[in-house]
Write a structure and sequence with these properties.
This protein is α/β, with parallel strands linked by helices. The protein folds into two domains: 7-37 and 259-348, Aspartate Aminotransferase, domain 1 (Alpha-Beta Complex); 40-255, Type I PLP-dependent aspartate aminotransferase-like (Major domain) (Aspartate Aminotransferase, domain 2, 3-Layer(aba) Sandwich), CATH 3.40.640. It is 35% helix and 15% strand. The protein has eleven helices and twelve strands. The strands form four sheets. It has a five-stranded mixed sheet, with helices on both faces. The longest helix is centred in the C-terminal third of the chain and has 24 residues, at 259-282. It is globular, with a radius of gyration of 20 Å. Bound molecules: pyridoxal-5'-phosphate. Belongs to the class-II pyridoxal-phosphate-dependent aminotransferase family. Histidinol-phosphate aminotransferase subfamily.
């Protein structure tokens, strides 16, 4: 705290990202990065961009990448908004699209950035409890609200909800924007992007950080009705006209031109996820059904905190949230087969 701080900054409660320790040979299963790495075509495209053109500003609207994403998802370019990671897209939509007359709704157990953006933009948030089996009940989202946001699959639970349930929420809220945060959709779910032409109140966000293995490049996007995209553009152009640099624009485009790499890496994560789930169940864990690149699991006898600490002493990091309802759970990112083997051996020794 300092006398130089604005009153707003004094009140802020920032997000705490998973740690990025600088320890070699760490088995790092705490931030849901993709273990397989980006396509070599992405690396080549970024290297090809390393030239004198870096003295020039990038395309402020990222037209080429927006066209690529529009073609990929069978929408129009004016339905696509780009951001410096999907976190930036989320920040802008909290400002651009959520109303202040009622609280916005999100699950009680979900991405913890949502309440942080509420604090930043002075939007009231209301946490709606998940069911006892950690599922979203669409009926709970029919109450008056200023907007709705949830990830599908949800984080950190990994639980996925079919599009028919999302349609129930959309139909119950025709006057409010419903945001589906699809950071993990490519690991077995079906995207709600196919609903955007039916529902002008639907905005879907995705990221290249997880399934496309580009967390370090910082690219995310939203797809929805052109009116929603225009609102996001108004905020973006009042904040930073050039959120994506030349390297990010080139690398992201190339990521969508290597479908084979993408498919193989998702398949690898999914098959390892099933293997890890079975091993954990064999060790006495309850594992929630996951369609993400992580599993959320609690041991029937051992404490989540002790297990996380015990793994850490062996150079294996997973995420533990010291929060109500989930303090016995661990969120474990699916790693390479070797990392997952190390994880299982680590648990066996505890
Ligand atoms: C990882 C994640 C994001 C943010 O991803 P970016 O790296 O900022 O694109 C957004 N939502 C959820 C639920 C996530 O887990």
């Amino acid at each position: 705290m300092s006398k130089f701080w604005s009153p707003q900054v004094k009140e802020l409660v920032p997000y705490v990202p998973g740690e990025q320790p600088k320890i070699p040979n760490l088995v790092k299963l705490n931030t849901n990065e993709n273990p397989y790495g980006p396509s070599p075509k992405v690396i080549a495209a970024i290297q090809a961009e390393l030239n004198d053109s870096l003295r020039l500003y990038p395309d402020p609207e990222g037209d080429t990448l927006r066209q690529t994403l529009a073609d990929y998802h069978s929408v129009k370019p004016e339905q696509v908004f780009l951001g410096n990671g999907s976190d930036e897209v989320l920040a802008h939509l909290f400002y651009a699209l959520f109303q202040h007359d009622q609280p916005i709704l999100y699950p009680d157990i979900t991405y913890s950035f949502y309440p942080v953006y509420c604090g930043l933009y002075n939007v009231e948030g209301k946490a709606v409890p998940l069911t006892d089996s950690f599922e979203i009940n669409p009926e709970d989202y029919t109450q008056p609200n200023g907007g709705i946001i949830f990830p599908n699959p949800n984080a950190p639970t990994g639980r996925y909800m079919g599009l028919e349930y999302i349609e129930t929420i959309l139909q119950a809220n025709p006057e409010r924007v419903v945001v589906v945060d699809e950071a993990y959709i490519d690991f077995g779910g079906e995207t709600a992007i196919k609903l955007v032409d039916l529902y002008p109140n639907l905005l879907v966000t995705q990221t290249l950080s997880k399934a496309r293995s580009l967390a370090g490049l910082r690219v995310g996007f939203a797809i929805g009705h052109p009116d929603l995209i225009e609102a996001l553009n108004r905020v973006k152009n009042s904040f930073n006209s050039y959120p994506l640099d030349r390297l990010a624009l080139a690398g992201a485009k190339a990521a969508y031109e290597d479908e084979e790499w993408f498919r193989k890496s998702c398949e690898g994560v999914i098959s390892e996820r099933e293997r890890v789930t079975q091993s954990l169940e064999g060790l006495g864990f309850e594992v929630l059904p996951s369609k993400a690149n992580f599993v959320f699991a609690r041991h029937t006898e051992k404490s989540g905190e002790d297990l996380a600490q015990g793994l850490r002493e062996q150079g294996i990091i997973v995420r533990h949230f010291n929060k109500p309802r989930i303090s016995e759970f661990l969120r474990i990112t699916i790693g390479t087969a070797e990392q997952n083997d190390a994880l299982i051996r680590g648990f066996q020794s505890l």
